[in-house]
Write a structure and sequence with these properties.
Largest sheet: 7 strands, mixed
Number of strands: 7
Number of domains: 2
Helix content: 25-40%
Radius of gyration: 19 Å
Shape: globular
Structural class: alpha/beta
Order of helices and strands: EHEHEEHHHHHEHEHEH
Strand content: 5-15%
Strand order of the largest sheet: 1-2-3-4-5-6-7
CATH superfamily of the largest domain: Metal-dependent hydrolases
CATH class of the largest domain: Alpha Beta
Amino acid sequence: MAFVDTLQPAFERIDLHTHSVYSDGRLHPAELAALAAERQVQLLALTDHDTLAGCDEAAHACAERRIEFIFGSELTALWRGREIHIVGLKLDPGSEPLQSHLQSVRQLRIERVRAIGARLTRAGLEGDAIISEVLGNPGTPTRLHLAMQLVARGQARDVDDAFGRWLGTGQRAAVPPKWPPIETAVTAIRAAGGLPVLAHPQRYKLSGGGLTELCRQFRDAGGEGIEVSLPGMKLKDAARAASLARRYGLAGSCASDFHAPGVPWRPLGRFAKLPEGVVPITERLGLTSPGNAATTSNARPAT
């Protein structure tokens, strides 16, 4: 597959789904911006899980490197009992409805981490110490942080083993999530002037009919985009996402879901071109040329 063609010549290399230490990424926002510059990324969004905490730092670092920056966040939601992720792009960080939503979800995350820690304690592990370490992180607490602690304490060989033995569905320390429905997440994004994008649709392990229904409900709730181009995406998954984008009038987003350097299947700023007939997300964002991205004012353009 050919790389880097967003159908917007002015933005030949964009990445609209990345993470930093403010959720489950490994780089500080300034380090992310430096790597983006090295990879010649022209348009970048930081989309940490359920937080905007690192966006100001990322915006400043991107401005120094002449990279256009978009305030973003990856909001966690539930649909038919499944965890679904919705990326909000071009968010107003001063939005009270959005900040209230993020605070509510953070509290749900903290409660879940504590409940998992209690189960780890009952299983004979150092649950309290693990909780203390995880909640001491600068940003959003996630199960990945718990998994890393289990690895560091010799209770798992690696992160996959930690989920397989302790944290995954049906395991001894598993606690079902209680995230808000997708309609609530979409409403919070739109209240902040943002554009809601369905993240990595191929990862939800849904049937063709299930994914179609998810996209329909997402669109009906106010969703406007879907990630169509991601590194490592199988051809059949990309084709399905593109078909759903065209069917429901969703714009196509290019993203890596970058978390850390050295992960070959999620390289920053490198992904396949958008399929024919899929509207680039940059059009919905009102970004058709460098210098038009907002790093301080993220009002949503009329569509």
